[in-house]
Specification:
Layout (H helix, E strand, L loop, with lengths): L1 H51 L6 H61 L4
Protein name: Flagellar export protein FliJ
Organism: Paracoccus aerius
Length: 123
């Protein structure tokens, strides 16, 4: 019977290593995703500020402001497109990390339960 609990403990260690790898992968992806979200938010703010400006402008200043607003709009569109492209992979990485972590926890519980059954007195 101890062989079964030892095998479960070995499986749990392997699952724990896989879970750590997936969690590190997800953490790196999460950092990248947050940076992209921050960039998109900055572009939204820049675009919003360009439209909220109420200062009177000359024709040349209006052209410059319009060019800046157009550039901000293009950058915002690119940032939102990148976020939309990354989202499915981000969700998949999150699911993989959660699955591997859950697998390791189940194996830990099974191993502990098996050891407890082995140590229990038999009548």
């Amino acid at each position: 019977m101890s062989r079964q609990s030892d095998k479960l403990a070995q499986l749990e260690r392997i699952a724990r290593l896989k879970a750590e790898r997936e969690l590190k992968r997800f953490a790196a992806f999460n950092i990248h995703m947050k940076q992209a979200q921050t960039h998109a938010a900055a572009m939204r703010t820049a675009l919003d500020q360009s439209y909220r400006s109420t200062a009177p402008l000359s024709v040349a200043e209006a052209r410059i402001a319009n060019a800046q607003a157009g550039r901000s709009a293009r950058e915002l569109h690119q940032a939102e497109t990148e976020l939309a492209r990354m989202q499915p992979r981000f969700e998949a990485a999150r699911r993989d990390a959660a699955r591997e972590f859950g697998r390791a926890e189940v194996l830990l519980n099974l191993s502990a339960q098996s050891r407890a059954e082995e140590k229990a007195p038999r009548y």
